[in-house]
């Protein structure tokens, strides 16, 4: 991800850095190029506009520090604006509350929800020493529940035994009950996806949320789908209320628009990135590191 954005921005800044003094016209010209690069990376237009305005205002009015060249200073201003656009603080997962706390994973089919559920469960088990149980509430897709059970064995996290025919809300209640009795800290609920957002999906997810009272509701979205991922997140947030986003497939050649637009459009933090199919290919999201990656 970000490869072409990085190389485009790189050449804009190379030009700026070579200049001894920066004139307003130089900044404006550079910002025209940055604007194009962001649009090409599929960043949402309102996000691009506010980004360019912030950077231009700061860069034109900035007093040049003695320690850096004017060009370097513009790069720093762009870096800071990127961090802000991406959401500066990483809040991590909220696991406060009386155990077991529920983490609900929602999203469209194929976004990487089941894989991401198991990745987060593995991380909580290994890094945070939590006793985690996973439960699949996907009764719509054949073998979805078995898929989670297989991943559970792989990452050595317990999964709720499958009761054929049981419906999502009842599975969620059974999972919470089993976790309470078994002394688990965290229950990860892998909800059903659909190919598109529809009312029955939203009603189901809302009913599960009401029954489980999760401390986190994480939308899993595929970075490769660009602005569609942002639209999906926005719809889920408005209807269900999200606490965070996990963006998957950033190991692919996604142009980065989803990552860059998500926070401002949805006002929801990106908490994790999926960086591959393997169970430890999960990264915590840190805006400063991503900005650093983009600026090369
Ligand atoms: P679900 O329908 O949303 O539960 O999606 P799955 O978890 O079944 O994932 C669909 C496919 O995407 C599987 O082949 C996963 O291995 C793959 N996948 C999930 N996350 C990532 C990721 O971060 N990177 C890559 N390259 N593949 C992923």
How would you describe this structure to a colleague?
- The protein is of the alpha/beta class and 296 residues long.
- A hairpin with a 7-residue loop joins strand 7 and strand 8.
- Bound molecules: guanosine-5'-diphosphate (GDP).
- The site of guanosine-5'-diphosphate has 17 residues, from helix 5.
- Part of the signal recognition particle protein translocation system, which is composed of SRP and FtsY. SRP is a ribonucleoprotein composed of Ffh and a 4.5S RNA molecule.
- This is Signal recognition particle protein.
- Its EC number is 3.6.5.4.
Helix count? 11
Bound molecules: guanosine-5'-diphosphate
C-alpha end-to-end distance: 12 Å
* Overall shape: elongated
- Please provide the count of β strands: 8
The secondary-structure element order is HHHHEHEHEHEHEHEHEEH
Unreliable segments of 5+ consecutive residues:
none
Write the layout of secondary structure elements.
Elements: H1 3-17, H2 24-40, H3 45-61, H4 70-86, E1 101-106, H5 113-126, E2 132-136, H6 144-155, E3 158-159, H7 168-182, E4 186-190, H8 199-212, E5 216-222, H9 227-239, E6 244-248, H10 257-266, E7 270-274, E8 282-284, H11 287-295
The chain binds guanosine-5'-diphosphate.
């Amino acid at each position: 991800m970000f490869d072409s954005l990085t190389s485009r921005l790189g050449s804009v800044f190379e030009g700026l850095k070579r200049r001894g003094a920066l004139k307003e016209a130089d900044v404006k010209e550079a910002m025209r190029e940055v604007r194009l690069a962001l649009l090409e990376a599929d960043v949402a237009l309102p996000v691009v506009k506010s980004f360019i305005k912030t950077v231009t205002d700061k860069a034109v009015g900035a007093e040049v520090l003695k320690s850096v060249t004017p060009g370097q200073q513009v790069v720093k201003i762009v870096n800071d604006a990127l961090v802000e656009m991406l959401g500066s603080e990483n809040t991590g997962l909220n696991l406060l509350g009386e155990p077991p706390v529920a983490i609900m994973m929602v999203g469209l089919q194929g976004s990487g929800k089941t894989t991401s559920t198991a990745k987060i469960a593995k991380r909580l088990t290994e890094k945070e020493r939590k006793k985690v149980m996973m439960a699949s509430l996907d009764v719509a897709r054949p073998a979805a529940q078995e898929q989670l059970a297989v991943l559970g064995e792989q990452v050595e996290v317990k999964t709720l035994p499958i009761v054929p025919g049981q419906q999502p809300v009842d599975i969620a209640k059974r999972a919470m009950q089993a976790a309470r009795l078994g002394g688990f800290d965290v229950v990860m609920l892998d909800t059903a996806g659909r190919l598109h957002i529809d009312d029955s999906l939203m009603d189901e997810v809302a009913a599960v949320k009401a029954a489980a009272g999760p401390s986190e509701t994480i939308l899993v979205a595929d970075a490769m789908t660009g602005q569609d991922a942002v639209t999906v997140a926005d719809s889920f947030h408005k209807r269900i209320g999200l606490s965070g986003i996990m963006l998957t497939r950033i190991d692919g050649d996604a142009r980065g628009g989803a990552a860059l637009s998500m926070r401002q459009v949805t006002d929801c933090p990106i908490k994790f990135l999926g960086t591959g199919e393997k169970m430890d290919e999960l990264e915590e999201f840190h805006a400063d590191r991503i900005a650093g990656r983009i600026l090369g």
